[in-house]
């Protein structure tokens, strides 16, 4: 949405609110700065919606600039506008704070990992799109090694530069893509679940859930009776 910024703003917060009180509670106050958080779910569970909301919250809470690595081609400026307006934030302010890069293949990530130091929030949506179609077993093993390498590099930079890193991942029939290669580097997993049209989120390793709703205003919480 804009040119690469020259300098990252200083960060004083250790957590970034998701904009959902129940989810923040499960996360211990929000998404942790200086760590990698994974958002996991099947197709249509709201992973990208939550990423859009986090990108808005980064500006709203003064955390800093956002690097949004869009591998799926699902970034929608109009969603940023509607989420920002619902929270009393000027849409232009929100959009200008987000630098969107379309990522199609692994070499781009190698280049971009050197550039993330200027940002406070880095979102990769989504990881499987870049690595999911190897041509043979040898290439599949190489891809999984690259996933671990990438996650390790992102974690090191998150810690050293106080960055909140979000990795979006896919669950399909109970299996999470490259789960064992990612888990050593991921602090917490936000698992989005859809059952009978009811959406909820739980944080792993915790077991509690909070019910969610997605509207024009973004991702919200359904109050328990």
Description:
With 225 residues, this protein is of the alpha/beta class. The chain has one domain (15-221): P-loop containing nucleotide triphosphate hydrolases (Rossmann fold). 34% of the residues lie in helices and 28% in strands. The protein has 8 helices and 12 strands. It has helices at residues 21-26, 47-60, 77-86, 91-96, 106-112, 127-131, 137-161, 179-182; strands at 15-16, 31-32, 35-41, 66-70, 98-102, 121-125, 164-172, 175-176, 188-195, 198-204, 209-215, 218-221. The strands form 2 sheets. Strands 3, 4, 5, 6, 7, 8, 9, 10, 11 and 12 form a 10-stranded mixed β-sheet that branches. A hairpin with a 2-residue loop joins strand 11 and strand 12 (218-221). The longest helix is centred in the middle third of the chain and has 25 residues, at 137-161. It is globular and about 50 Å long.
Q: What are the SSEs and their pairings?
A:
Blueprint lengths: L14 E2 L4 H6 L4 E2 L2 E7 L5 H14 L5 E5 L6 H10 L4 H6 L1 E5 L3 H7 L8 E5 L1 H5 L5 H25 L2 E9 L2 E2 L2 H4 L5 E8 L2 E7 L4 E7 L2 E4 L4
Parallel strand pairs: 3-7, 3-9, 4-5, 4-6, 6-7
Antiparallel strand pairs: 1-2, 7-8, 9-10, 10-11, 11-12
What spatial form do the alpha-carbon principal axes imply?
A: globular
Distance between the termini: 42 Å
Mean pLDDT: 90
Find the count of extended strands (DSSP E, 2+ residues). 12
| CATH homologous superfamily descriptor | P-loop containing nucleotide triphosphate hydrolases
Name some characteristics of this structure.
single chain; 225 residues; alpha/beta; Rossmann fold; two-stranded antiparallel sheet; 8 helices; 34% helix; globular; disordered N terminus
């Amino acid at each position: 949405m804009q040119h690469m910024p020259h300098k990252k703003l200083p960060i004083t917060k250790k957590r970034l609110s998701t904009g959902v009180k129940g989810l923040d509670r499960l996360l211990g106050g929000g998404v942790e700065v200086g760590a990698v958080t994974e958002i996991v779910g099947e197709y249509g569970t709201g992973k990208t919606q939550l990423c859009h909301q986090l990108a808005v919250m980064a500006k709203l809470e003064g955390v800093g600039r956002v690097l949004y690595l869009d591998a799926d081609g699902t970034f929608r400026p109009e969603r940023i506008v509607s989420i920002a307006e619902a929270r009393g934030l000027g849409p232009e302010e929100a959009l200008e704070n987000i630098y969107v890069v379309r990522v199609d293949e692994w070499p781009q990530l190698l280049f971009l990992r050197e550039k993330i130091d200027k940002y406070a929030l880095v979102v990769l949506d989504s990881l499987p799109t870049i690595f999911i179609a190897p041509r043979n077993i040898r290439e599949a093993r190489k891809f999984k090694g690259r996933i671990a390498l990438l996650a390790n590099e992102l974690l090191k930079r998150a810690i050293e530069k106080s960055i909140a890193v979000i990795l979006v991942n896919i669950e399909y029939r109970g299996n999470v893509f490259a789960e064992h290669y990612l888990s050593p580097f991921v602090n917490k997993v936000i698992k989005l679940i859809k059952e009978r049209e009811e959406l909820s989120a739980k944080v792993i390793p915790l077991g509690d859930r909070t019910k969610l709703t997605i509207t024009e205003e973004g991702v919200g919480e359904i109050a328990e009776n």
